[in-house]
Amino acid sequence: MPKVVDSYNAPDSFTLAAGGQEREANAFAAAILMPADALRFVMQEGLAETLEGLARMFDVSQAAMHWRVHKLGLFSAL
C-alpha cells in the first residue's frame, strides 16, 4: 500500500459553506474522527472491507468516509 500523507485541505464539494475556514474545520474534524493511521490499519487487517463498514466502525456518515478515504488515496484498497 502506498504511503499516504494526511491533509487538512477539504474539497469544495465536502461542504456547502462559502468560507475557507469552514472547510478547514471540516477537514480537521475528519482527521480527528478518522485518523489516517487508524484507517490504514483497519483496511490492512481486513477489519472493515466496505465503505459502509468503515463508516459504521468510525461512527461517521458514508459521505464523510468516502471523502476521507478518497483524500488519503486509500479508495483503491476497498
Mass-distribution shape:
elongated
Mean pLDDT: 81
How far the N terminus sits from the C terminus, by CA atoms, comes to 12 Å
Work out the radius of gyration. 12 Å
Q: How many strand units?
A: 0
User: What is the H/E order?
Assistant: HHHH
Structure description:
By secondary structure, the protein is mainly alpha-helical. 53% of the residues lie in helices and 0% in strands. The radius of gyration is 12 Å and the shape is elongated. Mean pLDDT is 81; it is low at 1-12.
Briefly say what this structure is.
The model is unreliable at 1-12 (pLDDT under 50).
Secondary structure layout:
Elements: H1 20-33, H2 36-44, H3 51-58, H4 62-71
Name the features:
78 residues; mainly alpha; single chain; disordered N terminus
